[in-house]
Amino acid sequence: MTQPAAAASFATFYQELPVLVTGGLGFIGSSLARRLVTLGARVTVLDNLNPGQGGNPHNLDGLAGALDVRLADQADPQAIGDAVAGRAVIFNLCGRVAHMDSLRDPFGDMHANVTAQIALLEAVRAGSPAARVVYAGTRSQYGRALTRPVREDHPQQPADINGVHKAAGERLHLVYHAVHGIATCSLRLTNIYGPRQLMAHGRQGFFNWFLRRAMDGEELQVYGDGRQVRDVLFIDDTVTAFLLAGMTTAAAGHAFNIATGEGHGVGELAEAAVAAAGRGSVRYIDYPAGEKPIEVGDFVADITAAQETLGWQPCTPLAEGLRRTAAFFESNHAHYWTER
Amino acid sequence: MTQPAAAASFATFYQELPVLVTGGLGFIGSSLARRLVTLGARVTVLDNLNPGQGGNPHNLDGLAGALDVRLADQADPQAIGDAVAGRAVIFNLCGRVAHMDSLRDPFGDMHANVTAQIALLEAVRAGSPAARVVYAGTRSQYGRALTRPVREDHPQQPADINGVHKAAGERLHLVYHAVHGIATCSLRLTNIYGPRQLMAHGRQGFFNWFLRRAMDGEELQVYGDGRQVRDVLFIDDTVTAFLLAGMTTAAAGHAFNIATGEGHGVGELAEAAVAAAGRGSVRYIDYPAGEKPIEVGDFVADITAAQETLGWQPCTPLAEGLRRTAAFFESNHAHYWTER
């Protein structure tokens, strides 16, 4: 996926580099950690394996001894202080991303997305002020898109509690840059899909659940007319964005949309999942109670800032990404189909 | 200050109405509680008297028996659940507003401005879903003004941790409106001044400290050239805005700038404080270390939304507000000059 020149510089930059990946047993964190191990980095992973959030020990299978995995709560000052000490780059993927869950458990969402973020930033300020910190933000920070494509300076009016806390977590990172000089940046992720994603439930998004239902030969339920536009991005392209952000000095103090910049209808995405799985079917239904108020409408990101500042370019076509995702889960079904 | 017509409707609306004022021993909360008692409301006050935040038992002097004062932490589910039960209007002024303090104690700031806010909103959702909730927001949510006058849809990029948490607290209120149907709104307050303000230190703002220094016959220190523009509002006008917000159905789901809409230079405000006190002097100095990064530049609010939706109009001239403030503190010096 990566251009040859960038691949060479990745290895040069990350070889032997001490890095931390928080949330590193999760979908994106583990994919990033695996890539960093391949690049020769000295990788530490911190994760609390909070049930239902996507942390999965199988995500780092085959890497025993190749990295240092620590099971602890990022909000624990001792644990996070130890984890950030001596790291050159900190990829901060600890957090929750489930919208409806945040409405049911606002304090739990706050703990992961605000308390644990302050704990990390305070630990970096006190013990690793020269480290770069790359935060995983989300397009949910914007809420309903008032203009499209959505640029980074679009107002942030999150539609649910998770979005409020994720936006606060990002802004805290940027304040620590402005006030304390920490080299923080944020990647606002769109709907990410790919191998190692949580597949046991659909509370973190719809696209993993579509593929799960299709692979099970079942019916995919699309709300409304299925024309809601989403911008979905394959995991490998996402990992590349994190690697670039971790090595780009000019990223400090900024937030970047990480997405394809191309919209697909939700119905179209359902059909693509069925095609990749080779089974399943699509059915259009009314919005369930409780989902409609937090539906944020169509979303397509403007990715110019990431292209220009990070030199990033998404390059995995949807059909190929889905094919590779389906192939992974065909072989690893047992580790992902039921909640740990 | 209030127009006769509005005054009549205030009494009609609030007479015998059960209301809660959180942070009700603080500057704005107590001023509002006093006015509500005068209007015949059944007033409950909740405050934890957190040291250094402005809560002051003397603020409700002379009202023993006229209202119900409860000393408790708003983040305590039992205390807040009991406090919101049966209230028709909840004026939610619990919170911290000190910028530098938030950098030194981010967890304490989060507790007051996020945790305690979720606790209140969850208590309202569970036990008082028909109550109106008026949240005290702040112009610090905006950060540096990109355009002036600042409208409510201006981007929110707070420059310090306090601003991040206050913005999150407001957005949580608006999410509870959108998702759960609670009639919440937010008043984004500019620099408020007046009787009963915290005068023991200058960490919550500059204007109270200017008047304090002037009344002590000392030197007022103005940073830089003193041309930084601020929008300062007298307490009585602020209280009127809260009363209107509590009775305006159309306010639900919205945020309103509460300010004069007129800017004054910080140097000019210092001179006005000296004039009101009849003593003191003004000196211009360089920015101290640590203050410059969180200086947000000039600020003037657009107050059209509050004028049109709430029917609110600020009407106390600066010189009159300062004169009344100085007169109050001449007589009540002992209760305000030293920290409790």
Can you offer a commentary on this structure?
Two copies of one chain form a homodimer. By secondary structure, chain A is α/β, with parallel strands linked by helices. The first copy, chain A, has a domain at 4-194 and 233-261 and 300-315: Rossmann fold. Chain A has eleven helices and 13 strands. The first copy, chain A, has helices spanning 4-14, 27-38, 77-84, 99-104, 106-127, 161-180, 207-215, 235-247, 266-277, 304-310, 318-336, and strands spanning 18-22, 42-47, 68-71, 89-92, 132-138, 183-189, 191-193, 219-223, 229-230, 232-234, 255-258, 264-265, 281-285. In chain A, the strands form four sheets. In chain A, strands 3-2-1-4-5-6-11 form a seven-stranded parallel sheet, with helices on both faces. In chain A, strands 7-10 form a two-stranded parallel ribbon. A two-stranded parallel ribbon of chain A has the order 8-13. In chain A, helix 2 links the parallel strand 1 and strand 2 (42-47). The longest helix of chain A is centred in the middle third of the chain and has 22 residues, at 106-127. The radius of gyration of chain A is 19 Å and the shape is globular. The two termini of chain A are 32 Å apart. Mean pLDDT of chain A is 94; it is low at 1-5. Chains A and B meet through helix 5 and helix 6 of A and helix 5 and helix 6 of B.
Keywords summarizing the entry:
homodimer, 17% strand, 340 residues, disordered N terminus, 41% helix, alpha/beta, 11 helices
Question: Brief description of this entry?
Answer:
2 copies of one chain form a homodimer. Chain A has 11 helices and 13 strands.
